[in-house]
Amino acid sequence: MTLRILRYVSVCSIAVVLLFVATGLVGCGGGSSNTPASPVPNPNPYDGNYGGLTSDNQPINFTIANNVVTAYSFRILVSPGATQVTYNGTSTAPVSSTGFNFQASSSTGPVVTISASFSGNTMSGSLSYPNAGQTSTVTFTATP
Question: What's the pTM value of the predicted model, to 2 decimals?
Answer without folding.
Answer: 0.70
